[in-house]
What we know:
One of its GO terms (cellular component) is plasma membrane. The protein has 851 residues and is an alpha+beta fold. Helices cover 64% and strands 7% of the residues.
Amino acid sequence: MMVGMPRFVAENARLVVVGMLVASAVIGAGVPMVERSLSLDQFQTDDEAADALEYVAANFSTDGSETTTAQVVVRDENVLDRETLVAVLEYERALWDDETVDETLVDTHSVAELVATAAITEERDWTNATRTKIASSDTGAGPPDPERASDIDAQLDALRSLSDDEVERLVGDVLAGDGNRSSQALTLLPDYYEPGTTETNATLLVVTQETPGGSFAPGAAPDELEASQTAMQDLAPTDGSLTVLVYGDGIVSTEITDSMVDSVLLVGPLAVAFVLIVLVVVYRDLLDILLGLAGIGLVLVWTFGTMGWVGIPFSQPFVVVLVLLIGLSIDYSLHVVMRYREARPSGEVAPSRAMAVALGSVGVALVYVTATTVIGFLSNLASPLEIFRNLGLVSAIGIVATLAVFGLFVPALKVELDGLLERHGVDRVKPAVGTGGGSISRLLGVGATLATRAPAAVIVVSLVVSGIGAYGATTVDASFEQSDFLAEDPDDWVKDLPGPIAPGTYTTERAIHTLEADFVRRDTTASILLTGDVTNPATLERLDAARATARDGPVTATYADGEPAVTDPITLMDRVAAANESFAATRSAADVDGDGIPDRNVTAVYDALYRVAPDDASNVVHRDDGDYEALRMVVTVDGGAADVAVQDQLDSITADADRDGVDAIATGDGVVNRLTADQLAETALTSLFVALASVLVVLAVAYRVTEGSASLGVVTIAPVAATLTWVLGTMALLDIPFNIVTGMITGLTIGLGVDYSLHVTERFVQELASADATALALRETVTGTGGALLSSAATTASGFAVLLVAILPFLQSFGLITALTIGYAFLASVFVLPSLLVGWVRIVGRGADPS
């Protein structure tokens, strides 16, 4: 801290306290202004694929209106027997009867309906009306039908009137047929179903719903859709007749919101509880504990109040900032309090005098730590992702607030309260951790002993371990998936926690795993967008070649009968021509060579397609005021396929279509997510180099000015670089990727690492000026400042370790890796840095004999 400030704070404690409280009231007024943002588009940046995704959402629709599809996984011992088919229809009937669900409900589609329809018609073959319904359901379309509820009643009556054997025969007829009727039914059965058999343990119920307000980003579904899909899950039978899992945009959005709230309510109190336990062990003083907790609260008020004033919304990754500031606040508090206790070995030293000495001693280190940690977090401003720029900015604001609170408010308040209590006869002299001998002092002294006896060996071992970590760092992947934001269903013991902090039940993650393992997920689609001269016959020829590539691709999902999940204008033409003679004649007249692809009058063919099947046509052909501007191929990819394999296939498809006046680009949530993942990796690497270089320059200049040696700054940053390699190597070993929060780990590691190293270096320089030998200066450093670092590391690591019980997987991995980061930073500063400092002393000839 600046010269004279420590004395001013200590001697004008009451004025400082009042001033900080007034400032806190003003800044804290911004807390109610903090808004919440959960939409996943906040993690995306401007990109060609992202722009194409917006274009597709705005200009293509399945039925001319905005709809979405929910997939309901139904499980039972045999979902094709009479009892379960009836139960499925009863569940569908309950959906139509429920006011919340019915508000958005457009249509339902299931194997139970198809079997019941066959029972009603009493025919082995299906009627054209049934065939048309099945075809339209494949695209998730279909206009609202006020007769649907009564239709289901009729279907229920039909199934109930039949025997088990009669229903089994009908099931066999429905599922063993050939052509369109069988293939469409098989889209609702798992990929392990054997066509023609009448037994399987799972099926899908597809529910089409309106989306009030139009299109929306993942995680930001309209309230009506959230309510309806939550109600769909609640309406599931509870009598054991069947198991139901609902998956759709609405329930995903609901669980993203609930998981964030539950995470804050669960992690916040537990973090405080763990910190409180550590503080009780370390401080052993009620007043210091309360001051520490009050300081944490004030830091959070300043941070989130500033967010409210500047308009930065709170989203999922900011849970990490919450825990981060709790940990760093205690870190600052421990250094001030322990140094204060060291400066006051007896009651003869007044509180104000001891605090002035403490702040004068540790204050410079705190300012350096704050500056370098802020640099570490502000390195995220170089990220292409706005969310990371906001995270870096808010974290930097929080660190500055931490310095203000624990460098001004808490010390001033402690001086006032200690003085008040002592005037009433209460002894306020307390020992500092690590200074009274015992096992802690002996443990901390190991670093000093190794440094004076074998510094070269310590440095060599550190370099070897760092080299291994650096190699592992090259294999760390990046990940950005919708599932990253979905909570796993918590363990029972977590649900049994006291009411306010006990999380709810989460099913979406399990539904995703089931769909990926057994079915074709309807939300894992990629769109190949073609713009330009789309009425040119050559465009359709290239589209046909691209379609062949898509259908034969290794990552294209297939239905139970082996049919690839690909939809495009040519596929639609084939289906419509099979059901409509008029359109078949129009296409045939335009098909000169008889290959099924129009060779002339393409505009007329599109016109006919829109007349006959406008809903389906609008899903793959974009028309604006009569002009045809774009085509779309929809490829459903295997949800478990590797990102690289998916991207390679999409590149091959677009290469077939992109030429001669037509631009083709692959887009979709998966494509954009892959780009976001790449940007996460870019953020981590950029922040690494920017932060390291910036901190190195700052420390070199600072120590050149204050100690006459820029090399001391290099020595101080070296353990931080080592810590970084250890952290990244551990991420590789544990298969932890860069995600929306671990992408911050490089900046965080630099910030925390510099914090620990700076305190050791600053204390060492102070002790070296008066010590008879370097060894003595090192021992005083590692047992004095090292004790505070040990307490801080234990406290901060405990706070982050609490994230291991969080219900969001990305928070769990971040908690683990950050706790390890803190441990590594402590080890590097107490056991590696002393050896580097000895080397520095010997090279520059500073101080006394190292021995």
